[in-house]
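*** Query protein ***
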Amino acid sequence: MSEIEANGRTYRLTVHALDNMVKRYIPEDWVVEALENAVPIPQGFKNRDRYDYDIESDGEFYPIRVIVKDESQSWI
């Protein structure tokens, strides 16, 4: 598994998350930006926090949603 740093925490990316990043052409720095700037929507589906954020790239906006399975373990 891959790890990323954001908000002073280490987040471990699941295989599912990595597969979706590749499939949707989402660079790792977009995920970091979303985690650092979005306001988390707590305890959504299956007690997971959700981070929704719009990334601007080349004059266009792309919606990014990051799901954090367990904030205490920082799994994505």
